[in-house]
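Progress note, project year one: complex with F0G.
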Amino acid sequence: MELPFAESWRIKMVEPIRKSTRAEREQWIREAHYNVFQLPAEQVYIDCLTDSGTGAMSDRQWGAMMTGDESYAGARSFFRMRGTIERLTGLSHVIPTHQGRAAENVLFSALVREGDIIPGNSHFDTTKGHIESRRAFAVDCTIDEARDTQLEHPFKGCVDPDKLEKVLAVNADKVPFIIVTITNNTAGGQPVSMRNLREVRALADKYGKRVIFDSARFAENAYFIKTREEGYADKSIKEIVREMFDLADGMTMSAKKDAIVNMGGFIATRHADWFEAAKAYCIPFEGYLTYGGMNGRDMEALAVGLDENTEFDNLRTRIHQVEYLAKRLDEFGIPYQRPAGGHAIFIDASKVLTNVPKEEFPAQALTVELYKEAGVRGCEIGYILADRDPVTRENRFGGLDLLRLAIARRTYTDNHMDVIAVALKNVFDRREEIRHGYRITWEAELMRHFTVRLEPVAD
Ligand code: F0G
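Model obtained:
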């Protein structure tokens, strides 16, 4: 008999978490104005808000932290981190930053000008924010298949080469670079195939453009290439990672995801001109060039994390857990963005709470119901997150309305996945009775989802 699958690690330290009663949660979510970001984390039993900075570091990472060099300039820990990044990606110029959006801020300060156009695949919110705040435009060229949550497609995160070529053909002079997000978070943690990365490279070369990878979950992307794309089954993750980055001119990295640290990020590039231009912004925004917002000990942990998480066993354990949750949801017939992505399951709220009008934010209603049911905190990736149209000030109802359940790396067990699945099933079973969602009582002009205040709509 074939041995069953099991995790590629064992547990050395635990952190107690606490259950609560439904009555407590009803009071807490009311006090939080029905916005899960406003909940103190102690009021959460299983936290699926994000996979960013929430992973469990390994004993090797904690051990490396003790060896951190905290010198202001020229710290040994920086050179160790840079060496690892160069060995894995081939990109030799490295600028540390305190997290991913800081890498975007530093690099885009050097590269993005008013009126520029930056095509890519579903730019992440902060990426888009750093483009739009410079009065430039992010043009989404993701394949149309990504919009149909029930369609099975192995690489739903890909760039549509025709859409990209249209942008380049008309506006090449306004494009400072193309950005490809691997994996594509906004489309559901969906991967981009090597073939597609090559297509993007070919178009970039044709129009004389450079390519940046937004690399937060690059290792998960490599795992999907290995397991889903023809010709890669026998290659190691590290070989695939190198092949991917051979197609890039530079990368921005939120190390809080695939480097499994609580805080950290960096820029890496093969081009001295980009490096020189970005350096000028690192010093005032982030700090001196050999720490850029990070402690020496954090750079040590980051280097070890990158190495560990580009090993097949670690990634297999991680993706297996996300797929396990997806399988449980399949048993209950709960619709999510298919197939299961790398870091999260995205529930299609518009297919669950069909009686809640879109003006009452179905995905937010589902997020609150799930919290009340079991203390599980997901987050809305839908109409509230989409903000208002900057010109008409109308809500934007054009995209998907999803509840994201992000799975922290090496943090929860499959038993926790069972709790999440059954809690969702219980909500799903009474979906017909849920007729109303929420109305906004206060909101910020931009990125309103973090601080929005809501109240339930009554019959
Ligand atoms: N790019 C992608 C694809 C991301 O998912 C994130 C963060 C960033 C850039 C920004 O990095 O948070 O280190 O500043 N995503 C988190 C999430 C916050 O929950 O998906 P950061």
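The domain at 59-308 is CATH 3.40.640.10 (Aspartate Aminotransferase; domain 2).
The longest strand covers residues 93-97.
No further modelling is planned for this target in the current period.
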